[in-house]
Write a structure and sequence with these properties.
single chain, about 210 residues, endopeptidase fold (from Nostoc punctiforme), 6-stranded antiparallel beta sheet, 3-stranded antiparallel beta sheet
Length: about 210
């Protein structure tokens, strides 16, 4: 999957590079280009999400104001931003990326969507989406609920409810060992993770593999 950077971080999926090179070698080569590997995983992301419980204020704000000010979608943008993955702005857009997963398959890091408040739809009004959260290792969901309670953690069953408001779930990262998060220390302009393929190829191939 192609990832787009969040602030000064960008994730890279090794299997998408299409190059005969190990992840360790990728990190080594990119380090010489001004990128630093960060130790970020699902546990780190959930820890960041939980750090906002009782602290973040719920408002419909610009993503750059997260985690101080968040709504449900910008909260997830910030959480996945820790991994160097920029999610789209609205829940209905976020539901379009990654792989569809069913409720029994949910695991840590998956995104869950419900109808929510003031939902949006594309073609089918019955498939409207207005709210989202991230699954934890405890079979709970952390989400920016509303202006009264802010960011909370609730059981998946409570988040989904009776099921009539459930609007699907998505998996953004299939295999953690296949993804690395890089810090852009020199401020090089990176549009997407695909750019790393060509940054690596600037050095003659025989020096890599």
């Amino acid at each position: 999957m192609e990832f787009f950077p969040f602030r000064d971080r960008c994730a890279l999926q090794l299997s998408e590079l299409g190059l005969p090179i190990t992840l360790d070698r990728v990190v080594e080569v990119l380090a010489k280009r001004g990128f630093e590997k960060l130790d970020v995983d699902f546990d780190t992301m959930i820890e960041a999400a939980r750090s906002s419980i009782g602290r973040s204020e719920y408002v419909r704000a610009h993503p750059d104001l997260a985690p101080r000010l968040v709504d449900c979608a910008t909260f997830l943008m910030w959480v996945y931003g820790q991994r160097g993955i920029l999610l789209p702005r609205y829940p209905i857009q976020q539901r379009k990326i990654g792989r569809v997963v069913e409720l029994p398959e949910l695991r840590i890091g998956d995104l869950v969507f419900i109808r929510g408040y003031r939902p949006l739809y594309d073609d089918d009004p019955s498939d409207d989406v207005g709210h989202c959260g991230i699954v934890t290792e405890r079979n709970t969901v952390v989400h920016a609920a509303n202006g009264k309670v802010g960011v909370v953690e609730v059981p998946i069953s409570a988040f989904v409810g009776s099921g009539k408001n459930f609007r699907g779930a998505r998996r953004i990262i299939e295999e953690e060992s296949d993804v690395v998060t890089l810090l852009n220390k020199r401020g090089r302009w990176i549009r997407s993770s695909d750019d790393f393929r060509y940054i690596i190829l600037k050095t003659p191939p025989h020096k890599h593999w």
